[in-house]
Amino acid sequence: MELKKAQKKQVKLRLGMSGASGFGKTYSALLLAYGMVGDWSKIAVIDTENDSASLYANLGDFNSLPLTAPFTPERYIQAIEMCEKAGMEVIIIDSISHEWEGKGGCLELHNELGGQFIHWAKITPRHNAFIQKILQSTCHIITSVRRKQDYDMVKNEKGKTEPVKVGLKEVTREGFEYELTVNFEFINDKHLVKASKDRTGLFMNNPEFVITAETGKSIINWCNDGEKVKEITITDAIEKMNLPKNNMSEVVAVWSKCKECQTHESFIKAKDKQKELLTPKSE
Question: Whole-angstrom Cα distance, residue 212 to residue 210?
């Protein structure tokens, strides 16, 4: 444990876009991604929307990875890893809503187990693994989320209960927005957005605007402003993994930051040894 002065480090972007269908999430995500890297070949779209991203192929030579049902957390994780191994710099996941309520998504998996509260004990870790993959990815990640009309049942002046519109609700597990660096909400079909969350300080409390490539340039400048995070080597990783005081969250952190470690035999052995040390012995 060490008390030291806070210092901003370079970070990988975790940006969300949420809005109703047809509001321009995919198009805006592509423009923003291009503004960040300036190279269409370094952008990949994990497309769960029937390959709809390809409709914007005229923008540039970006990569598309169509993802079809079942939309399990593990298939999303596999798709992200494929993009990472292909050397992508920005991954657009369009959309993450299917992981939650699509065919083979978490809600369907929960119902297949019986739909009781106790069954979330098996589904929640799988969903959390998907979220952690987004947070620990070596790429910048942009996610899109569908929004749909939400209702509450309230009593009217006559005392009768009736449904009342209370706004648009994101189609994903509640709380995802808290994990993001920036979250843009699309407010209409004119592609206007507002920031509902902004750790960069670039957009919060500003008037609604349309996302362009210049938006991506502003964001990448913020991401790159700070101390560069040291790349972990295989030697560093193996040494770190052999420390008994480590916990499994540190193990995962090391594993995600060292690409070579994920397939290196010595590191895998060190990881397995560490896991054994940290696993409580049964009586």
Answer: 6
The alpha carbon torsion through 80, 142, 46, 264 (nearest 10 deg) reads -10
The secondary structure element, H or E, covering residue 171 is: none
This prediction has a pTM of 0.77
Q: CA 186, 191, 196 angle in degrees (round to 5)?
A: 25
CB 96 within 8 A of CB 76: yes
Q: CB within 8 A of 248, min separation 6: which ones? A: 275, 278
Two tokens at 265? 């035999």
Residue that the structure tokens 């939400």 belong to: 150
Under a CB-based contact definition with an 8 Å cutoff, are residues 179 and 131 in contact? yes
16-39 pLDDT tens trace? 999 888 889 999 999 999 999 999
Checking phi first, is residue 204 left (phi over 0); if not, alpha (psi -120 to 50) or beta? beta
